[in-house]
Amino acid sequence: MRKKFSTVDWAKTANIYEVNIRQYTVEGTFMAFSNHLPRLRAMGVDILWFMPITPISVKERLGSLGSYYACSSYMRVSPEFGDLNDFKHLVREAHLQGFKVIIDWVANHTGWDHEWTVSHPDWYQRDTKGVFTERNGWQDVIDLDYTNTAMREAMIEAMKYWVDECNIDGFRCDMAHLVSLDFWKEARTACDAIKPLFWLAECEETSYHDVFDVSYAWSWMHATGKQAKGEASLHDVREVLHTYTQYPEGARKLFFTSNHDENSWNGTEYEKYSKAAKAWAVFTATWERGMPLIYSGQESPNTKRIEFFHKDLFEWKHPLQLESFYRELLHLHKTSPAVQEGETFILPSAHDDQLMVFLRRRNEAVVLVLLNVSNQDRLQMTVQHEWLTGKFRNIFTGLEFYFTGSESFELQSGEYFVYEKMS
Fold it and tell me: Is the peptide bond before 337 cis (omega within 30 degrees of 0)?
């Protein structure tokens, strides 16, 4: 089965960096964030995903500043971050430095005092008493009615506005599965007519790949989280990965160890994975049909839960300890034919529930990945495979080795090795 829409070429080898403008700088503005563009580009970031930039509703607001995801207008900029010209300037600067820019689009619901609640109250769902309602238990938002043709047309016009006015390059669609697939088909058709865009869905419904280029790997993240707690095995993780191989041709999955939801509500990657946090980060950039996501601050690294509804700055610890770690990973992900398009061979061992070891290969390009995602030290493994011959380089240390088809390794808890065959 083939996807109905084609992925833009620049997205096929790309990675994504999620930007939390509010917490990124003391100022919490577009202009202040723009100072970080050169650093992020040097780290290898391709796509900047900005959490919602629209104004936030006051009615039923949570916390002192409210949720980005409870908007009061689809076609204005939150004054918390700056104005429209500030955002346009940021997009232009990002483009000049080689980035693509996507914005978070919250189509399922709005805040309680969104301008449509006054101008078009009939565009919303209501309960039996005629009151605006919401079906997912979120108190600061209300649901739109997608049986209303006029509302759907207005939503698409709002999305087109950001492409026309600000020259954005795509959308990350919040809780995409809560909105009917036929709407997304209409929206993509209309917006892509302006220019070809990249579409990322926060959902794991296979059918949504009829429209979207990339969908979330929630099942993988949940399985690895359970594995870290001893509530699941690596066999369970591999089963999830097998289901992803059944996705339509061209479909990709977004792999991540953290994002804004995970960090604020469930804890940092270090809470979730302990010593294995970096090993699983390596996985996100090396597994097949994957697109890696880095959340703001992970390169620092960020070891605290960030408040969602209040000002709560990331703690930037200079020098950024994981900047080079991510730079090497992102470079490999972007440049290696084996990682981008190669076949995958999972290597069995006597420690199959502690070690995740696999080879990627396309023609002469070969990458070997060894991850100890357990809390056990000194796990030994001998890798035997015909692909493992020739000169290889450890991408993190730069050390070179000649492999002869059978090599032995010992990994400590949380340790990771990535070897790329040299041409």
Answer: no
